[in-house]
Automatic annotation (TrEMBL):
Residues 54-321 form the Fe/B12 periplasmic-binding domain. It comes from Microbacterium phyllosphaerae. Transmembrane segments: none annotated. InterPro entries: ABC_transptr_periplasmic_BD (IPR002491), Bact_iron-sidero_bind (IPR051313). This is Iron complex transport system substrate-binding protein. The lineage of its organism: Bacteria, Bacillati, Actinomycetota, Actinomycetes, Micrococcales.
């Protein structure tokens, strides 16, 4: 997941805008409020309000994490350029009345500045030079939420750094309680399918152990198809996707239940391609013949509390009804 750089002219204009406005924005944000000093995973020392009143999540997962950790939100928040609103599985009550602007894959730093945040949470730590630009707008906690590991590890560290351990633990406790309940019901019903997360892109069927689906499968003790390249911990054995051409899709034989990404508008990728629907090898797969594939909003895979809860619900309904 990489961003598309802004045109050089736009970047230059943004730099001038941030340089001229950053001082007054930062001063106005903190005021006389109590502050907390900390060092971010990016190695930057920052000073943030002890109780931010206008926090901004730079990516959609960051916004969900801010809500989970109990932060007061800025009145304007970013969404993906290919979305028209916040993901439907996010907590809608906390998002009611907020304005939005597109901010991925291209970054809209002018709109971030206009949102007037007093704190920014930025999980795109893999983006070089982004942290420095955001620090000119407001104190920013930058971390890498997309390093291929379990997103919960880096968010747990962020919660600790930001003094929100109790809020984080509350989410962990309710999630683990749900997992235990679903596992018990699966065992009681002797439901133990082989599962896979399957997508379709650029003429090829794909599967991998990237993101939330793999973690949820592992948490529930479900057997994942070998092509997902999962470790025993439910993490990817490699960063690569398994890509299957039209002649190779039969290698998915043995998968009982598939979970598959869908666009915000509900378009299911593996249903949308005419060539795949005419591929006899694909049509002969048992999960295709049985209709045992279950769509989910692809934004769930990127790792946030609401995404994890929502995907767990998708699996629960698929396997238990």
């Amino acid at each position: 997941m990489r961003s598309t750089p802004l045109p050089l002219v736009a970047l230059a204009a943004t730099g001038l805008l941030l340089t001229s406005c950053a001082g007054s924005t930062a001063a106005g944000s903190s005021g006389d409020a109590e502050t907390v000093e900390l060092t971010t995973p990016a190695g930057v020392d920052i000073e943030i309000p002890a109780e931010p009143q206008s926090a901004l999540g730079f990516y959609t997962t960051d916004l969900d994490i801010l809500i989970t950790l109990g932060f007061e939100l800025a009145d304007t928040q970013p969404i993906r350029d290919d979305f028209t609103s916040f993901p439907a599985f996010f907590p809608q009550e906390e998002l009611e009345g907020l304005e939005t602007f597109g901010n991925f894959p291209e970054f809209n730093l002018e709109a971030v500045l206009e949102a007037d945040p007093d704190f920014i949470l930025n999980g795109l730590g893999y983006e070089e030079n982004l942290d420095g630009k955001l620090q000119k707008i407001a104190p920013t906690y930058t971390y890498n939420a997309f390093d291929g590991g379990d997103w919960r590890d880096v968010v747990a560290q962020a919660a600790s750094d930001l003094g929100r351990e109790d809020q984080w633990q509350a989410w962990v406790d309710q999630y683990e309680e749900r997992v235990a309940d679903i596992k018990a019901r699966l065992d009681a019903a002797d439901i133990h399918p082989v599962v896979a997360d399957v997508g379709y892109f650029d003429g090829q069927v794909t599967t991998s152990c990237y993101g939330v689906p793999c973690l949820v499968f592992a948490d529930l003790g479900l057997e994942m198809h070998v092509l997902m390249n999962a470790t025993d911990e439910g993490l990817p054995a490699s960063e690569d996707y398994t890509e299957l051409s039209a002649e190779q899709v039969g290698q998915l034989e043995g998968v009982d239940v598939v979970f598959t990404g869908a666009d915000e508008d509900g378009t299911v990728w593996i249903e949308d391609d005419a060539a795949l629907q005419q591929n006899q090898l694909w049509q002969n797969l048992s999960f295709v013949q049985d209709g045992a594939y279950f769509p989910y909003n692809y934004e769930m895979i990127y790792g946030s509390p609401s995404g994890m809860d929502a995907f767990l619900t998708v699996v629960e309904k698929a396997l238990l009804g």
